[in-house]
Amino acid sequence: MTRCLPLVAFVLAGALAGASLPAAAQGMFRGDPSHRGVAPEAAPGAFHRVKWSFPTGGRIVSSPAAWQGLVIFGSDDGNLYAVEAASGRQRWVVRTRGPVASSPAVVDGRVFAASYDGRMYAVDARSGEILWKFATEGERRFEARGLHGMTPKTQTYPDVYDVFLSSAAVAGGRVFFGSGDGHVYALDAATGALAWKHETGDVVHASPAVADGRVYIGSWDGKLYALDAATGAERWAYQAGVDPLIHNQQGFQSSAAVVDGTIYVGCRDGHLYAIDARAGTPKWSVDTAGSWVVGSPAVSGGRVYFATSDSALFRAVDAATGAPVLQKPTQAYVFSSPVVAGDVVLVGVLNGILQARDRASGDVLWEFRTDASRANAGWVLTSDARFNSAFLFPSSWGDVSTLGAQKQQTVGSFFSTPLVAGGVVYVGSADGRMYAIE
Amino acid sequence: MPRSTRVRGALALLAGLTALAGGGAMAVPPADAAGRWEGVAEIPGAPQPLVIDLVRDAQGAWQGSIVLPGRGVKGAALDGLAVGDGKVSFALGAAFPFPVDPAPRVSLAAQADGTLAGRLEMGGNGAPVTLRRSGPPQVDVAASTRVISAALEGVWRGRYELGGNAREVTITLANREARPAGGKLVVVGKRTTTLDVDQVVQGREFVSLRASAADFGIEGRLDAEAGTISGSMSQGPFEAPIVLHHEANAKGKTS
User: What is the pTM of this model?
Assistant: First the structure.
């Protein structure tokens, strides 16, 4: 959405934008605790076929992790799955009591994943045996009165675009994650015992980055926090934009990438920020004209790659200055996080299209489109794969807006961030399938 | 040619011959029904994707499970599964969160083009269903522990509270011949409810018990020395803390 639109339009289109996250390299979301978003191997330069697809009972917003021939991911059907990468056959499943909308981290043979049942699970990666669970004070979506301009404006609405749970970062024997209860947690990875927790002002569904003894994580209170990894003590908090009127232009869903002492992070206030990791002061910011930056930036070769929601752009800026390098249309909102994989950048789009782009030029090399997206079910998309928003959001009435937002995902939206392993791209879709693409 | 391709080819040939001999529906040898079948139930305005897995176990009995993408259902067991004479039918009671009477039912017949076609019936409504084979079967089987430890066998007692009302729980767990471990669960509150514990999963320390018929579960950490399971009970959306005491250690304890 853009700020110049009338409020209703602003609200409706905005309702379409928003969530965050996903995984990149191998063992955890964005590859490692610093969240650079760079895969350790190149993605295919061309699309050949879908090697297999694994159906689940709910949408998949979780980003897969790879471990010893397994692809491990969560589904909104409440299950955490391990599927054999070679065959697409299920190795094990752990049933939780809520959508597993987080991305698993796999460290030392243990899988750590959060569920909407309010628990962090530790699971044996080989067998799927539950090792421990840790109960937070409970999960919830971000919510606000008159959210995104929905009416009646005095009604409190859960944000349908708050689709991701915080994904664990594991470092130094500790599991770090955020929760809908507003806290950032640090647990002992071996036992699940609480090491510390730090309270923020609202839901924490971004995922923590860990570097140089600090945990960096944003909250829906609009602050990016730097916490001491050992004690949880707050080192600094950077206040990004807030939106007291309709709460549309505030909150961190994007997870920070920490590279060479700089934090790169997107925000729903319509900015990409570069912040000095030590001092917490901004180095530069990119104004996206009100469009959310929900996914997490990828940082490679002196560039920061990110994508936007309503303006539907894939962008790269100079990591040192924020100066624009390239900008390409994605047709629809992007919540998935770009992954740099060799000379390719993979970008999942909510219109059900996975784009493989040339890293240098940003041009599309190949695309994979879900069947649901091809079918253009229910006029959700226009013929050029944009969201048919005028049809989906005929009014600002809350129920109508919520239904429209849910309808958008029927095209097999890619919230999940792709994983590249063994020359195969793995990515989950809102159509409920984990795809293996080669 | 891969084996799956050969099987499909044979099925198609058989289907074609049978169709020539007698019309649309045809008899499918039971072995050919085994596999993963995917398609859609054409519910008006809300087409429902279906993924069905069919396989025969070592004794030759058919087993099956279903995935309903978008409905949160993955691996629900197919009840009353019948395969034969070119037909496949089953009920879907396990795929819904509360009992439906009569249970939704799917009835399919093999078609000349190798598909399974038929109808989903539920609550007096019906929708056409067409399924195509998409690969080998991946039937979901609930992961139950075959043999539980002596420390877990026996009678366990505990109490929990929901909405201010206390419930006394007695669970009897045992190893069973030719079946995974299981047992009985008795809950005494305003009334007495007896349930089968149809799933017991014992890990290194973590224990999970489930009575599927009532969506009732207890899970927690087993302390074999103390004779306790400390954790929580759940039923549908409700949860409460509970500590179970092994009868041998439970004298005078009711927490």
Answer: 0.88
